[in-house]
Amino acid sequence: MDKMTIARTAALALALINQLLASFGYSPLPFDEQQVEVAVSSTLTAAAAVWAWWKNNSVTKEAQEADEVMKQKKAAKKEAFNRE
Asked: Name one Pfam family in it (predicted).
């Protein structure tokens, strides 16, 4: 099992335990609704900012053409490596 599978399984288990406790009237997470809303909104904003920063956003026509040349070169290099 790879690390991401373990992480997803652990997150699912925690979510299920949290849901089970909540259905029996226990509040396992000591947060009110407004704090959860702010946390979720902040997390989504931070994730979007990191994603937009990390990815190569080629906006101009020249940048898009350069990306296409790069893809072709990478594909040729991969093909040459696979032939060896």
From this structure: Holin_SPP1
